[in-house]
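User: Predict the complex.
Assistant: Input components as received:
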Amino acid sequence: MTRTEILIELKKVFAPYTTNKEMLDSINDETDLIKDLKINSANLVDIIIDAEAKYDIEIDYDSADKIINVGTCIDLIMEKLKQDK
Amino acid sequence: MSKRIVVTGLGVVSPNGIGIPAFLHAIQNGISGIKFMPHYRELNFSCQLAGMPAFEWEGLKNYISDVTFHGLKGTNIGYGIAAALDAWADSGMGYETDEPRWETGCVFGNSIADTEAMKNVINRVDSKEVKKLGSRVVEQAMNSGVTSYISGRLGLGNKVITNSAACATGTQAILMGYEYIKHGYAKRMLVGSAEHVDTYVYGSFDSMRVLSRKFNDYPEQASRPMSSTAGGFIPGSGAGALVLEDLDFALQRNARIYAEVLGGSSNSGGQRLGGTMTAANSTGVIRCIDEALASSGVSPQQIDTISGHLTATNADKQEIQNWTQALNRKGDDFPLTNSLKSMIGHCLSAAGSIESVAAILQIEHQFVHPNINLEDPNPEITNMVGIDCLPVKMIKKEVNIVAKANFGFGDVNSCIILSKFN
């Protein structure tokens, strides 16, 4: 899976949790989940759970702490997908 | 302490009507909201009926953001949000605010989180999948979930309190809101209560053998308060909400005024003198009604209508006797008395607020709603009060003052006195 493919999928994962739907279409690596997408920090947990189910991966607590913006999200998913192979 | 407190908004999610127009139509025409529940038959419940509101869950998106809606599972919370926000809008106010509304608080009651929704939590934990629970469980499991969602949506910044007093919860919430305004703590209080009787709560009542079991094939006839054939209550679900305001505060913004809350009382029989966990101490009940009258400056003779607790158990007779003693009125001198439970069943925590909405609509539209299923009144009741005091058809008449009471497990009582606004 390429970064672009993951980005497209991630938009679907973020959609139920962002109150800034207009911004969702134009997200890039630098988009901050909390500041830009206005995601409630408590909901990051739900995003991780949804991503785990979607990609059939497991994101441990320490890795989850690295999720700050869209770029680090994609990094993490790519890394986990690679590990699983 | 000369403050007057008025009702400026109403909202309701009732088994026989959602929203004030539908509910008003239903209570004027004696429309039952009791339905057969096939699932309860499969579960071997003795009572297989319920008053379930025809609530469209997706409709909650009209009240809360998509983000909040996503992951909301607590049915009681959904009912509470709809009723409370409808009452707010009915009061002529918008939902949005950037600043907290420091002058407005909320007392909203309920009895238990939606245990059907909580079942998912139990299953996940037991199957060692706690990581998959996510962030939205605690806010819905906590008893203050209902008030948290309501006050968060509207930015309420005064006292936000979740009360719980079994079947007296709704009436008590109204009284608490009244007291906070009366004592000058708040200018406006959004008050009410919500209940969702899920399978597990329902089953627990069923096992107590306090539910009606002989009318499963005739749902609409099954809830029969004060009747000779009353055989227990039918659990109901829903929510009722009222906006209470300091009179001057309401007049300043030209709010519509439905009615005035004159006063009330909430006490307990202490589970003494015949009172138990499940039965009311009559001395406590009579004291509660008398205190409500005294705090309202109303004489027993001024009561036009009683909106009773009257669940269709053998406690109905005792309740009527308590009213006759508290008011010192009997026979044909007894006030017109009705039980909304004949149409919607017993909505437990939500009973007091839904029934209070009905009481206020009777004041607003000058009528007394019928008791349905009372073609065979219990002679032990009609020995005490005139049969014409228990209307079986809607009566159009001047209604100035209504006494509304509820009595709950734990031997708790609540009574409020509502009046036409003059």
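The mean pLDDT of chain B is 97.
Let me know if you want any component modeled separately.
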